[in-house]
Amino acid sequence: MPVRQHQVGRKAPPASLPAAASRGVRHLLEGPRQPGVLLGASSHAAWLQAGGHVLVLAGRDAVRLPNGVTVAEPVDAVRSSSGDLCMVGDGRLEVGNMKATVVRWWDPRPSLETVSPKVVAARCAEARPRFVSIDEGGLGKALISNDPAAVRHAMCGLLGKGEGLTPEGDDVLVGLLAGLRLVGPAVGNPGAGGMQAEVAPIVLTEAPFRTTALSAALLRHAVAGEVADPVAALLQALTGRGDQEEAVSGLLTMGNTSGVATARGVLLAAEYLVGGINNG
């Protein structure tokens, strides 16, 4: 993608805005300054690529993502176009006429309480009817059979499946990967790490060629257990902390299908993990 310099005649950039950022991209934001390329922008966010990573600059009312930087100003004020040069590093992010200086960090990896598998199973059963409309391509059956090869096959079928910046199939996988990483230790299932190790490499090897740059980035964060705030709320609610109905409601308003699809993946992971214990 060609990089364009900012056009002459645009208004001078404003003073730097204070920002909050995810620890998932702290290494990039606190590292040496380096150029990036704006991949796209909407009325709510701008997303850019730098140093092999994707960051999302968003306003304070947007959903916080594991690769996000948030400011109080509306991001539609960014006067920039896809392909424009951005700068990242030394605690700052510069996109178009907007400069953001990180003054606070948040952790995109939720802390889950140790919990009985029976509690998680009951909460999954309660939440499942709200998220049955998503086609998970046989992933659930593959998990029930505890067959890593079948799980990998189903995952490859889901990668990049659907429309938009984060296709629905990818959203399911985000939930699955984060669920395996985080729910397994919470319920004391030692098999979670084995399945995670079997399936996580698919994200690193296949996602860059099968889906969008933003979606591939979110999948990589999910492997590390780093997720958007509404997904973190569901994971915490399933393991006994937080209001489950509130968490479900938050996911239902996250994108057209992203929240529902991601929740489906979380439930698949959780049900696989607690089923393995209850049937063991």
List the helices and strands and how they pair.
Blueprint: E1 17-22, H1 26-29, E2 34-41, E3 45-50, E4 53-59, E5 68-71, E6 85-89, E7 92-95, E8 98-106, H2 117-127, H3 139-144, H4 148-158, H5 168-187, H6 191-205, H7 207-210, H8 213-223, H9 229-238, H10 244-252, H11 258-278
Parallel strand pairs: 1-8, 4-5
Antiparallel strand pairs: 1-5, 2-3, 2-6, 3-4, 6-7, 7-8
What percent of residues adopt helix (DSSP H or I)?
40-55%
The structure class reads alpha+beta
Share of residues in strands: 15-25%
The H/E string reads EHEEEEEEEHHHHHHHHHH
Report on this structure.
The longest helix is centred in the last third of the chain and has 21 residues. The N terminus is likely disordered. A hairpin with a 2-residue loop joins strand 6 and strand 7. The chain is built from eleven helices and eight strands. It has an eight-stranded mixed β-barrel. By secondary structure, it is an alpha+beta fold. It folds into two domains: 90 residues, SH3 type barrels, CATH 2.30.30; 162 residues, no CATH class.
